[in-house]
Design goal:
CATH class of one domain in chain B: Mainly Alpha
Order of helices and strands of chain A: HHHHHHEHHEHHHHHHHHH
Radius of gyration of chain A: 29 Å
Structural class of chain B: alpha+beta
Order of helices and strands of chain B: HHHHEEEEHHEEEEHHHHHH
Oligomer: heterodimer
Strand order of the largest sheet of chain B: 1-2-3-8
CATH class of the largest domain in chain A: Mainly Alpha
CATH architecture of the largest domain in chain A: Orthogonal Bundle
CATH superfamily of the largest domain in chain A: MetI-like
Distance between the termini of chain A: 51 Å
Shape of chain A: globular
Distance between the termini of chain B: 68 Å
Number of strands of chain B: 8
Largest sheet of chain B: 4 strands, antiparallel
């Protein structure tokens, strides 16, 4: 039986290479571009679209463009006038922030980038501390840097604050030394938050008018009405996302609560904010918040916008987190209950860490949406990245350059959003949470 | 020798009730009462402050302003409106403008989105890449930026009416907007809608009959072609019988602008266009995910049964893909409707610009106006999600 079949299979001489038309470049072109008459027509149609769109765009943006110069006269108006962007670059980035103070924003960026980059170093031991720094200490630093002016810290609140922080360090030193990071951090975190918040919010109120106080004025005050450009876009997006996270977590928990009143309150809150456009929320923040406040309390325009954005974003965040909570199997709750954990410890130690891990991609997607939505603040008179470009192209001396402004800001937004969406897709694959 | 149990744990009796502050039910009640009190406290705080502030600024409250004369013009109105009419009328004009631009956006975005989703799954490499590039570019740019781009950088830069961009000799695009032919009904036009209604009814009856016959005898009937013939033929026959009571009015250049035809203001064109383009990118991704979500085994099983490609798609793939597509599609429709409020940024007279903008400026009654605006959007959202949920329930998987 060792007949012909075996010899046929084994004879290497008979294993012919694929026909030339099915392999290599030719094969690929035939397979993926001209596999049927319809496909061939579609290919030619697509090529035509590219031919119509690409060459003029490239000619406009690069070949015919004017790159050097400092005035409008440097542009021949045959292609793009990138001189416009060069002249307005600082405004587009920092708004009307005084030129001499721009280093403060850059220092703020640098600290953030360094700390953020550390989070991406694989197997970096201090990650929880870096994260805690970014969430708790960094906002304070950023506030001091960006706003500036005179800081008065009374000795009483200084003492109280130092005692709190010192106490925290002493209390968690053992965990710290034994490298029991997660456990130590988990317990240290709320105390840290409490300490920082207490120090900043209550410290000086309690010691109000205390005679002995240190007053520093390291750099002048920059009012928020001078903020603008990409800087304010980043501030609004960052505050929106960080502010909406805790509120979103509580709303999501409330929506899944067994207590009908709590559930009703949370459902109503979430659905109302999700049902209305951000513009109306911003209108409300700018027109109605001042009415809600008692006399004499005057909220800054930026602060009002931040509040509106954070409230709006928290409703969306709550729905993302609810998705994560629903994905946690019932057994996890039951196991936690069997261990004798109460509601808060069950949520904080067992359920929420797992749920948040699942929804990280969702949170990133939310952030992308929020980042794009920050452009709406120009409706209430804040000059964000896009708003600045709009203002620049309506400057009397530079009228008619809106296209350049939009292409440049569009490029900026696109880099951020595309980068984040790629990152979220990678996370999704790595965490195996994709569908 | 008798064993006496300690008196504190009597046998056969339930354990002592925990103290009140440890009883879960009592705690839940207390907690809810506390939350309710907190919410009401915030409410009272806001209301009292608002009342005090309003009375100090001398701003009236209540909804009486709806009857006051508006006194401002609106550039696009689909119902009669003049400056001497009331705020209520202005509100309605704005509301209708919002609804119209949203409806058109939804229709165009759906068509374009389905096309994109199918293009991305095409076996043609170039077509798939082109669609992917479109999606990645469009959905990573803020909608407001796109709106500004189309409005300020494209439409406003167009030449005047005399140098209009002309398409097919009937559509004229210039910096005053888009001018297109307008259908004008002549006497006897009422026959057409009636004929269309009869045709729809007839097609429905036919489909019913065909299905029953198929169930009974197994014989197939070409329902689709037959219904199409009825739907097109009957109105056409009616129109021919009444010697076509409809003509097109073409826009004509007179002096410095076009007269006649249908005029769409540039704000409307820019808004409808960018809403459709933006949302289509998201819908494309949803459609792609929906079609990929139908398991391969389903397609293979259908092929094994010998279904031709058309029926394979119509009977097996599309119904299952729709089940995945509908819920996220609903939220895209909601987003589009809410995003139509960006109109305010380019001065398209929608609800937000007319009502929450101009009327708010003139009356100063921020509380009532913002509340009404939000309520309108909430209602629209609820109605859209109700319709889509009903449709979703109809096509949902029925366990048998």
């Amino acid at each position: 039986m060792a007949g012909p079949t075996e010899s046929v299979v084994r004879d290497p001489g008979l294993a012919l290479p694929p026909p030339a038309a099915a392999a290599g470049v030719v094969g690929w072109v035939r397979q993926s571009l001209f596999s049927s008459p319809l496909n061939a027509v579609l290919t030619f149609l697509a090529l035509y679209v590219l031919y119509v769109a690409l060459p003029p765009a490239i000619r406009w943006a690069f070949i015919d463009a004017d790159w050097v110069g400092t005035t409008r006269e440097a542009c021949h108006r045959e292609g793009a006038c990138w001189v416009f962007i060069r002249v307005w670059f600082e405004r587009l980035m920092y708004g009307l922030y005084p030129e001499a103070e721009i280093w403060r924003i850059n220092v703020g960026y640098a600290v953030f980038v360094v700390a953020g980059a550390l989070l991406f170093v694989p197997r970096f031991r201090w990650k929880p501390w870096v994260a805690a720094f970014l969430l708790v200490v960094y906002p304070v630093i950023a506030f001091l840097l960006f706003v500036g002016g005179t800081f008065t810290v009374s000795f009483v609140s200084l003492a109280v604050g130092l005692a709190l922080v010192g106490g925290t360090v002493v209390r968690f030193w053992p965990a710290f030394r034994e490298h029991a990071w997660s456990a130590g951090w988990r317990r240290a975190y709320p105390v840290f938050v409490g300490a920082a918040v207490a120090w900043l919010v209550l410290g000086d109120r309690l010691a109000g008018g205390a005679p002995m106080a240190v007053s520093v004025r390291p750099w002048p005050l920059v009012e928020t009405r001078l903020w603008g450009g990409l800087f304010i876009t980043l501030v609004i997006a960052a505050v929106g996302i960080v502010g909406s996270l805790p509120l979103g977590i509580f709303l999501a928990l409330g929506r899944r609560s067994h207590m009908p009143v709590i559930r009703a309150i949370c459902v109503a809150f979430i659905e109302v904010w999700r049902g209305v456009p951000l513009i109306t929320v911003l209108f409300m923040a700018s027109n109605m918040f001042p009415l809600f406040m008692p006399e004499g309390v005057n909220l800054d325009k930026l602060l009002r916008a931040l509040l509106g954005v954070a409230i709006f974003a928290s409703a969306y965040m709550a729905e993302v987190i609810r998705g994560g909570l629903q994905a946690i199997p019932k057994g996890q709750y039951e196991a936690a209950a069997a261990l004798g954990l109460g509601y808060w410890r069950m949520t904080g130690l067992v359920v929420m860490p797992q749920a948040l891990k699942i929804v990280i991609p969702g949170i990133v997607n939310n952030f992308i949406g929020l980042f794009k939505d920050t452009t709406l603040v120009l409706v209430i008179g804040l000059f964000d990245f896009l708003g600045m470009a709009q203002a620049a192209s309506s400057d009397a001396h530079w009228i008619g350059f809106s296209m350049e402004g939009y292409v440049f800001t569009g490029f900026g937004f696109w880099i951020f959003c595309f980068g984040m969406s790629r990152y979220s897709q990678r996370l999704e694959r790595r965490l195996h949470t994709g569908r | 020798m008798s064993v006496t149990l300690p008196p504190s744990t009597p046998v056969g009796e339930p354990p002592a009730r925990p103290p009140a502050w440890q009883d879960p039910r009592l705690r839940a009640l207390a907690f809810q009462a506390l939350a309710l009190a907190a919410v009401m406290g915030v409410g009272v705080f806001i209301v009292t402050n608002t009342m005090a502030n309003l009375s100090k600024q001398g701003i009236a409250s209540g909804f009486g302003f709806f009857r006051t004369t508006a006194g401002f013009g609106i550039s696009m109105r689909l119902i009669d409106y003049a400056e001497n009419q009331s705020y209520l009328r202005a509100f309605l004009v704005g509301l209708i403008n919002t609804l119209v631009v949203s409806a058109i956006g939804i229709v165009v975005a759906t068509l374009l989105g389905f096309l994109l989703g199918i293009m991305r799954l095409s076996r043609n490499w170039l077509v798939a890449r082109l669609a992917a590039a479109y999606v990645e570019i469009v959905r990573n740019l803020p909608l407001l930026l796109q709106l500004f781009f189309w409005y300020f950088a494209i439409l406003r830069q167009l030449p005047g009416p005399r140098q209009s961009v002309t398409v097919l000799g009937a559509f004229f695009l210039n910096n005053r907007g888009l001018f297109s032919p307008r259908p004008v009904a002549e006497p006897g036009f009422a026959v057409l809608p009636v004929a269309l209604g009869v045709a729809v009814l007839a097609a429905a009856v036919l489909a019913r009959w065909a299905r029953r016959r198929r169930d009974l005898t197994g014989e197939q009937f070409r329902t689709v072609w037959a219904s199409l013939a009825i739907l097109i033929g009957l109105p056409l026959a009616a129109a021919a019988a009444t010697s076509f009571p409809l003509h097109w009015e073409y826009p004509e250049l007179q002096g410095f602008n076009f007269v006649g035809g249908m005029e769409l203001i540039p704000e409307f064109v820019a808004l409808a266009f960018s809403l459709s383009i933006y949302t289509a990118a998201f819908i494309g991704e949803i459609v792609r995910a929906g079609i990929l979500g139908v398991s391969r085994g389903q397609t293979e099983a259908a092929q094994a049964l010998g279904l031709p490609r058309g029926r394979l798609l119509r009977l097996v793939v599309v119904p299952q893909a729709l089940r995945i597509i509908i819920p996220p599609l609903t939220s895209q429709y909601l987003n589009l409707t809410k995003n139509s409020s960006l109109a305010a940024a380019i001065a398209y007279p929608d609800l937000v610009l007319v009502f929450a903008g101009t009327v708010l400026m003139q009356t100063g009654q921020a509380v009532e106006i913002i509340a009404v605006t939000m309520a309108v959007y909430l209602t629209i959202s609820l109605v859209i999600s109700l319709c889509m949920n009903l449709y979703n329930r109809r096509i949902a998987l029925v366990d048998r």
